[in-house]
Amino acid sequence: MPELPEVETVRAGLVPAMEGRRILKATVNRPDLRFPLPEGLADRLTGRRVLSLRRRSKYILADLDGPVAGQAGEVLLLHLGMSGRILVSGRTLGAFHQDHPVPEKHDHVVIDLEGGARVTFNDARRFGAIDLIAPGAEGEHPLLRTIGPEPLGNAFHADYLAGRLAGRRTPVKAALLDQRIVAGLGNIYVAETLYRAGIDPRRLAGALGADDIARLVTEVRAVLAEAIEAGGSTLRDYRHADGELGYFQHSFRVYGREREPCRTPGCKGTIARITQSGRSSFFCPVCQRP
DNA sequence: ATGTGTTCCTGTCCGC
DNA sequence: TGCGGACAGGAACACA
């Protein structure tokens, strides 16, 4: 469940289980995801208190306290890749899920917290990532260093985007997927954004007009905000996963709707699917002009 | 530098 | 029911 709204939903779901709580035990069942887990991960987590949970792009960042009182601790970085899920279970006064007590296949890391919650990182395809970042080193971390502005933040605006797209001969679809240009968008929300902005995904980024770019900024923000409000999107029938309460998938206007009618009032178009840079693009050939 | 294609891995679904 | 192939929400990497 991996684009920005899903990650934000997962982060929010982890707050009652983790924030302010001490990690009593950490179990590593598998030594590697996309890359090897940090050396001594379980030991470095055990005994630490989770001070706060943040999100940057599609990454969840957990600020830990240090082993020495008053000293800053490491930051736990979590990335879900394509298939990653974070499950929350445990006896906790009903504050969160209680229905996933049984270990499943691909439960790679399990964290037990003060208060009785168990947080499980499950990722069948192992495209996800877990890392520990030294205090103050977040800005130089290879996975975070080159990421562009948060789309819901002040740094993402039409002038900025125009500057980043100028002269680019790549399709706008690819440009919006590029995390260095804007953080957090993935295949679904790019498709939905381009539909709402009335822009054909094949148009070259550098050929967009100022009006196109202004609409893109508006629609990126609107789609993401609506999706977060809906708790993200749930594609497959992931039972028991935190964050799968999302229902934004019912609001998709183009994603996954190949050969279905366009939902723009009065439009007789049919949603098309093409492949761009190896991934599916869904769009209405009538509403979204080349 | 910029743009494109391949690759990592497992699971599911669809057509024969 | 089995089997093969296409496809899946990401992103790093190798190459032209």
Structure overview:
This protein folds into 2 domains: 4-140, Alpha-Beta Barrel (N-terminal domain of MutM-like DNA repair proteins), CATH 3.20.190.10; 158-283, Helicase, Ruva Protein, domain 3 (Orthogonal Bundle). The chain contains 6 helices and 10 strands. The chain has helices at 4-18, 41-45, 158-165, 172-177, 187-197, 210-229, and strands at 23-28, 50-56, 59-65, 72-79, 84-90, 107-113, 117-123, 129-133, 272-276, 279-283. A hairpin with a 2-residue loop joins strand 2 and strand 3. Mean pLDDT is 92; it is low at 92-98. The chain binds a DNA duplex (16 and 16 nucleotides) through residues 1-3, 6, 34, 58, 79-84, 106, 123-128, 143, 168-170, 174, 177, 179, 186-189, 233, 235-236, 255, 277-280.
- Number of E-state strands: 10
Order of strands, main sheet, comes to 1-6-7-5
Q: Output the number of helix runs.
A: 6
Rounded mean pLDDT is 92
Roughly how many Å is the radius of gyration?
20 Å
Task: Offer a quick outline of the entry.
The protein has 290 residues and is an alpha+beta fold.
